[in-house]
Amino acid sequence: MRLKPLILVAASVTAAPASAHSPYLLPNGFVLDKGGHVTVEASFSEHVFVPAVAMQSDDFHLVGPDGAAVALKPVMLRHLAVLEAQLPADGTYRLTSGERQGRIAKAALIDGIWEFVDPRRTLPPGMVPVDMQSVTRAEAFVTRGKPNAAALAPTGKGLEYRAITHPSLIRAGQPAAFEVLFDGKPLPGAEVEVEVARAGDVENARLPMITSDAKGRFTVVAPEPGLYFAMTRHRVGPAGAQPARSYTYALTYSVSK
Q1: 3-class SS at 11?
Q2: pTM recorded for the entire structure
Q3: Rounded to 5 degrees, what are φ and ψ at 250?
Q4: 118: left (phi over 0), alpha (psi -120 to 50) or beta
Q5: pLDDT tens for residues 35-57?
Q6: Matching InterPro entries, A to Z (predicted)?
Q7: For the CA atoms of the chain, what is the radius of gyration?
């Protein structure tokens, strides 16, 4: 499959986003029959794949088919960052922003759930908000030639997906299995938001919310071929010297016929 032009999938300004300013990486191709180069868009968006805020990271990198990591240097534009990566050998590559330390805002444990709170909001007596830092990671996988699994290995750090079904082999109408991990351990009960990109001034299609099972696993059945975006958020309170954190993991992948 030849590389496609860089995709900028627009959504209607009235569309309901998966969440405000979601992070994403968007390569201009996911499967290459030949050639050794890919261009990647990195941004935050209120409407997925419509770039709004250029993504900055000190840890953009590429994990190759041998499991080795190579740093990527972004070109920063107003609404997006652009990365270029060489794919010198056949196999599967992981494109990643790495873990990004983001904004710090006030949060409170309300009815057992950590929520960001407006400073003007009146909280129940005795409830003291804490500083919560956002931590985000966006990823995508591309394959040159025959796929392999080395680059799929989880990092064991923070929030991430472990691909059980190879991302380059996902087909429409067939189940694709993943596992949600937090610090290397399965995360049960995690909510997974999935969108199907729509070209032009059209709202993205959102699949019903998915929840990981007791083993942290979930399955997505893509209703049609196309470009998909999956995202999970997980918030944890402060523990000792560890501040409260709001983790976001986002995966862009392509579904074939």
Answers
A1: coil
A2: 0.89
A3: -135, 135
A4: beta
A5: 789 999 999 998 899 999 999 99
A6: DUF4198
A7: 18
Write the CB contacts of 63 (distance below 8 Å, at least 6 apart in sequence): 69, 70, 93, 94, 96, 150, 151
Q: Express each pLDDT in 78-118 by its tens digit.
A: 999 999 999 999 999 999 999 999 888 888 888 888 888 88
Q: Is the distance from CB of 129 to CB of 84 less than 8 angstroms?
A: no
Q: Token pair for residue 194?
A: 């999935």
DSSP string, 87-138: --SSEEEEEE---EEEEEEEEEEETTEEEE--TTSPPPTT---EEEEEEEEE
**What is the C-alpha separation between 70 and 207, in angstroms, rounded?**
34
Strand partners, 106: 131
CA distance 68 to 227: 27
